[in-house]
Amino acid sequence: MARRWFGTSDSARPLVAPVLLAFCALSATWRAGADEARVLPEADVLQAPESVTKVASYALEARLDETAHTIAGKGTLTWVNSSGVATSELYFHLYLNAFENAHTLFNRSPFTRARSGRMTRRWGKITLERLVARELGDVDLLPSLEAHSPGDPLDASDRRLPLPRPIAPGERLTIELSWTSVLPDIVERTGVSRDFHFAGQWFPKIARLEHDGTWAHFPFHPHAEFYSDFGDYDVTLDVPESMVVGASGRRVSEVVADGRLQLRQRAEGVHDFAWVAWPAFERREERIGDVDVHLLYPPGHALNAERTLDALRFGLPHFSERYGPYPHPDLTVVHPPEHAASAGGMEYPTLITTGGPWHQPYWSRAVELVTLHELGHQWFYGIIATNEHAWPFLDEGLNSYAETVAAEAMFGAGSAGRLGGLVLSATAFHRFGMRFGPHDAPLARPASEFVDFGELGGLVYSRTALLFRTIANVYGPDRLERALRRYALRYRFDHPGPDELLATLEEELGADATANLRASLFEGGTINYSVRDLRSVRRPEPAPVEGDGSSGAAASAPAHQPFESRVVIHRHGELRFPVQVVLLTANGERSVEHWDGVGRDSVFVHVGSSPVVSVQVDPENAIAIDENLLDNGRRVAPPTPVATWERALYAWQLLIGWLGT
Amino acid sequence: MNVWNPRMARAVVLAYLLRVALAALLAFPLAAAVGASGIRSLPGGDARLFEPGGLYLIELIQNEQALLLELLAPTLVLLLVGGLVRVVPDWVLLRALRRFEDEMPALSGLRLGATGRALARLALVTLALWIGRALLLLATLGLAMSVRSFTTGALDERLPTLAAGGAACLGVVGWIGLSAWHDLAALGVALDDASPLGAISGALGALRRRGVRLVAAYAAASVAALVLVAAAAALVEHIDVARGGDARVLGAALAHQLVVVAQLALRVAWLGSALGILAALQPRAEAEPLRPMQP
What we know:
The complex is a heterodimer. By secondary structure, chain A is of the alpha+beta class. Chain A has twelve helices and 31 strands. In chain A, α9 packs antiparallel against α10. By secondary structure, chain B is mostly helical. Helix content of chain B is 77%, strand content 0%. Chain B has eight helices and no strands. The interface between A and B is large, with 66 and 72 residues.
């Protein structure tokens, strides 16, 4: 902005000072009104990964034994107490222990086995061998590490480490680690399948200490994902020379010696690190904007690779424009082979996995949708690092909405698929998905509180996406986009919760919108508009106007409108959105009414020369979360469903013919 | 063999009308379920089911899921019954291939009895076709799964799918062969008054002698029919009934019914080709395979 004023012409200079003063005054007013709200950064001073506060940084070395499928790891964790409270304990997430046996929290229930629904046949685990903090006198802390997750003697994925003394706010610990990870077979994201190795949650990860001094620690639940602090990762991988490796961050060096390949990767301002090694990967490299994209895919998937790159060419600028620039120099995209498909559809900072068979039909958008979804997670999870365990809707729900917007921008009405005359949108797809959960259950709750992954998927992904779609439709898509952009920029490289999201949205959308969001997210609020009644009566002819004939009263009497129609619209549920109601009369007159949704019923009276014969609430389907679209209309004489008859007749004719020959 | 004459044209029309009546009966439950769903109360009515995006289509399927599932089993039974009843319009077509008119009065007891027996035989031949297809399907699936698992360790993921696809192609060839055999057997029943077993073995014999030509003729008619279906689908997409108006529905109906009529015509053409191929097998001294019915 300063550069523009310096560049003004002579004739405009007299205006510069007063305009500048006015701008400053307006800015001060806005900032004063913002109270505790954080100042939005200008685009050119957006926080970069290098300047992010590094709370948990790792310098690691990992050697893959491709025969035993183990990873021998060692290194250093540099951790800072970034809270305002001293702490006498640490918590480590040893998530591979979730696959240690059939009794862990992850495995013990047959009804809640995550996305794949399968139990691993090859167990996995992570065994810490060294845990020494230099600042604590190089004492071996390993004997102090509690043997199992708090309160769960059968699970060892969440481990408390009491410290010999408190660690003050701002104090740093340098912790030397060594461990061995045994990779399970892949049933959920991480593990081994034949010679394909995916290392996710493969190292001891320190949990996040919140500002108030509480630890956000949790065992590995089958429905839940992850949450940790930002830091820098400097990781050296040692793998067989034949392996093709993809990893978070940027490749710094690559050395081949004695049949081994040593790669060094560095990722700045991230909160996790994942990598993959498989000898059969094919690679494509492409620069999209300022980002080097590294795509790894199995042989025979060239078409999928091109479709994935198409989605990235669209998605990277699309998401960057809306939610802030993608901050990292690299993005690695991994399409696992079919036998390791359970590693697909996942996000890590600067690395995403997609998936799908090589024969993706041209009319299905599955490749593009999964790519856009996982790419969107680079913002809603990667940069805005919300607690995925406590509030899965903050990343999955928001991201599902963002993915829908991206898909519809890229493909239009056929954003989920298009085959002949059948055109399916992502919104219709989410309406289908929404029914997998009870319609009146809260969306904003921990992942572990959902009955099963079907319910979580239906509510957190689909219903949340539709809720935000409704907010956009009712209050304006541009307003919601501005609100989400504000949220994304304000909490870039931070850990916001639901309150921060809603407070930011309210600034742009207003109290009504956020009241609806709160009711749906926290109380399971629903809405269903329906037409409760439509009827018309013939009005009696008015008595002739009496007069002496000279006054012209008879001539000036209004024309008699013989029909009075009454329409009653009903609102069911706790949410309240303004809505349009369209009335159509027998002679083709169309009138549009509005209801703000206050109260349970709204009555519209229409007086005219012909009766109202049809009414529809919400004709544009703005309320995407309406429980039932089929009760949104009423007609006096519903016609025969001729279009259905015609299609059904034709379909049966073809089937009968096929049966006989 | 040119089988087109006014009698055949009347037969095609009658066969078409019988199929329409049968299909209308079968379509009734689904259309009634859609009608009861509330969609026709919306402005635009059930044309909204075909709107881009599929919002109302998905809504209807979800709202009426229980009803649609309940309808599934009886619909399948109706379909099978319909497939058997379908022999009636087929009989009309096949009889029109005879080179001469029947001498008996149309509604004489003898003629009706003979027709009844022929229809029963055709139904049995159709049942034999279904059993053959079911066995073929199982065999093809088994082969596809075997070759797929045999190649599943291949580095290139296309290989297992292509191998299974190869097995499926064999299945398609077998399907075409079975269908051609069925039609030849139906010809035997309709034109030679053969018993079901006699018609089946006669058809097998014909395939042994002229299998390639017969299968090729059948495949050509089938491919042409598929092309017509695809062309109609493209045309109907362009018509776009979702935009409303009876004219669009009428246009779609016209396109679809033309396809059905054309499929009947293609069937007649294939049967005519088959008769021509079979006639060429007959020695000149025995050039009359079609004998008139004896009173």
